[in-house]
Write a structure and sequence with these properties.
By secondary structure, this protein is of the alpha/beta class. It folds into 2 domains: 25-227 and 322-340, Alpha-Beta Complex (Spore Coat Polysaccharide Biosynthesis Protein SpsA, Chain A); 246-316. The protein has helices spanning 38-51, 69-80, 95-105, 125-133, 150-166, 183-191, 199-204, 229-243, 246-276, 283-316, and strands at residues 25-31, 56-62, 84-89, 110-113, 138-143, 179-182, 210-215, 323-327, 348-349. The chain has a 9-stranded mixed β-sheet, sandwiched between helices. It binds uridine-5'-diphosphate and magnesium ion (MG). Uridine-5'-diphosphate (UDP) is lined by residues 30-32, 34, 63, 92, 94-95, 98, 115-117, 119, 225-227.
């Protein structure tokens, strides 16, 4: 190979990797307290990727797990350092920031994201890759018979409808993180610095040829969902407010509508008073109406607060994540093809990201 001897330290962000040493694809996996499922994931994931017989790499991002996940990832790096890199966060920063860190470290010609919990079968990575190689720069997925709690399925359907109407993002199944992104889209996302974001939607805004495919969805192999109702709510607000100002504009429209209506009511009441005398009934109807409008107004204030809070997050310019350490081998040491041979002890680099 005539490629210059690139060292790992020279190849960040991922775009700096010369095509000659770039793997065909990178799989990015965020990991948060997944000790129960990681051994099963390793078994299925590496077998599935080796079977594709293509140069690949896997970037695990440990999102500050408090269980044995980091240790398991280190051990896996010792075993398969040829194709494995591990980014260790110095705290819990959330799934989407973990994916962003994975993007920043990915060297592949395209990137496929996958959850660690085996809800999406790693055996289907080849199908996503095929779409990317067919020229699509964004491969969305729709879960065939989604295996989640009923309330989540319905809430998700509702949010999909609201998002479709208020943003430019056309994603059928927003919750599924098993997706593929072309190098151009990944580079564009890497240039974004927003504090709170929703990666599939952000990436979609840069895609020129998006496509969606059906994928399998299984029950979580082990462990439990890391999303509480509150976290899901926050994530959905990120999606709505991060990609559209329509929600808050709707309140202006509603305000105009109510003002016009109350003006009309005033005229009617005045006319009635002149010809029929003052009306005193309908007090409770008035209460009901007043409460409805107070509720709507409070919701509006809360919504404005969501935007203001996010602007506040942005202006503070805090780091989106802090990296404690990165486990990786230099590019030049990497064998051309994925080999199952045990890797020699690898250097551990530490770095800080701001
Ligand atoms: N995850 C993460 N940081 C978090 C929460 C979750 O990196 O703060 C990872 C988690 O380990 C998993 C993926 O994000 O790989 C999806 O999480 P989960 O399965 O809990 O979400 P759900 O499938 O319930 O939406
Ligand atoms: Mg899951």
């Amino acid at each position: 190979m005539n490629a210059p001897p690139y060292r790992g330290a020279d190849v960040r962000p991922g775009t700096a990797v010369p095509p000659a040493v770039a793997p065909d694809f990178t799989v990015v996996i965020p990991v948060y307290n997944e000790e129960d499922v990681l051994p099963k994931l390793f078994e299925r994931l590496y077998a599935a990727l080796d079977a594709l017989a293509r140069p690949y790499e896997i970037v695990f991002v440990n999102d500050g797990s408090r269980d044995r996940s980091a240790g398991l990832l280190r051990a896996q790096f010792e075993r398969r350092g040829d194709v494995t890199r591990v980014v260790l966060f110095a705290g819990n920063f959330g799934q989407h920031r973990a994916i962003l860190a994975g993007f920043a470290h990915a060297r592949g010609r395209c990137v496929i994201t996958l959850d660690a919990d085996l809800q999406n079968p790693p055996e289907e990575i080849g199908r996503v890759l095929a779409q990317l190689e067919a020229g699509h720069d964004y491969v969305g997925t729709i879960r065939r018979r989604r295996q989640d709690a009923v309330w989540r399925r319905w809430a998700s359907k509702l949010m999909n409808i609201v998002r479709e109407r208020t943003t430019q993002v056309r994603i059928t199944d927003q919750g599924c993180m098993f997706r593929g992104y072309g190098r151009g889209v990944v580079d564009a996302v890497n240039q974004c610095s927003e504090y709170n974001t929703f990666v599939p939607a952000l990436a979609y805004t840069f895609a020129t040829s998006p496509v969606e495919i059906l994928v399998g969805h299984e029950d979580r192999g082990a462990g439990s969902s890391k999303y509480s109702v509150l976290r899901l709510l926050r994530l959905n607000f990120d999606l709505m407010t991060g990609f559209s100002t329509v929600p808050v504009q709707l309140f202006s429209v509603f305000g105009i509508f109510v003002s016009l209506l109350s003006g009309l009511l005033f005229v009617i009441l005045m006319v009635r008073r002149l010809f029929l005398g003052a009306e005193v009934e309908g007090v409770f109807t008035l209460f009901a109406l007043a409460f409805m409008f107070i509720g709507t107004a409070l919701f509006g204030i809360g919504l404005v607060g969501e935007y203001v809070g996010r602007i506040y997050d942005e202006v503070r310019h805090r780091p989106r994540y802090i990296i404690g350490a990165v486990l990786e081998r230099d590019v030049a040491e990497r064998p051309a093809a994925a080999a199952a041979a045990p890797a020699p002890p690898a250097p551990i680099r530490s770095e800080r990201v701001s």
